[in-house]
Amino acid sequence: LFVVILHFSHEQVKKLLPNSSRWILLRRVFLMLSLLYLGRCVCMLVTQVPVADPTYFCSPKSNNTTFGDVLLRALRLFSGAGLNIFGKHTFCGDYIFSGHTLILVMTYLVVKEYSPRRFWHLHLLTWLVSASGILCILLSRGHYSIDVVIAYFVTTRLFWLYHTLANSAELKEYSVTNLMSRECWFSLFRYMECNVAPSVPRQFEWPLSWPRCFKSASLGGSRLR
């Protein structure tokens, strides 16, 4: 994902996100996703559970796996965008915790946090879509219930912790009383947030150069506290 973002110019990213603080939003989202997927990798490494769907195809086990075999399977997985609907997803065991739930919950949290309060219809729609997606994951036996519960818990706690730190100038500094500065990723957090004010505009702008009537209009105006 980072490689894809690097291929966008400033104007392309500007068209991608309507929020006026798009670069701050991108930094925060990708840092949180990186931390979450790093934690997911650790959980997958130390915890193996049986396949939730008995009809799901898994590649046969190999007792003589080489680095080339692993690389080939990774490339095949990448070619199918990680989706089993393309018949390229042959890995099993990546259950705890659910990456799909992680993305759905993160999407709702970002939309809710960075859009004006009066966009309640957008918040409700995003919540319904996310909740429906999670329900479909469970009904299709894509994950166990515990995978979804852990993903929700970890994602929401990290999101709230990150924004609690980001919205307080005092909590961005190392101190004896700031126990949250003991987080292993706190130094990276300080680097990402070093030039960001404690309050970020909750404001949208029209991302395209046309029509001009939308370009000059301001959507939102409140600030994140």
TrEMBL record:
Cellular compartment(s): Membrane
Topology relative to the membrane: Multi-pass membrane protein
GO (cellular component) term, any one: plasma membrane
KW Transferase (keyword) present: yes
Keywords attached to this entry: Lipid metabolism, Membrane, Sphingolipid metabolism, Transferase, Transmembrane, Transmembrane helix
One GO MF term: ceramide cholinephosphotransferase activity
One Pfam family it belongs to: PAP2_C
Domain Sphingomyelin synthase-like: 92-164
Record GO biological process: ceramide biosynthetic process; sphingomyelin biosynthetic process
Coiled coil: none
UniProt family annotation: Belongs to the sphingomyelin synthase family.
Record-given protein name: Phosphatidylcholine:ceramide cholinephosphotransferase 2
Species whose genome carries this gene: Trichinella murrelli
Species lineage: Eukaryota, Metazoa, Ecdysozoa, Nematoda, Enoplea
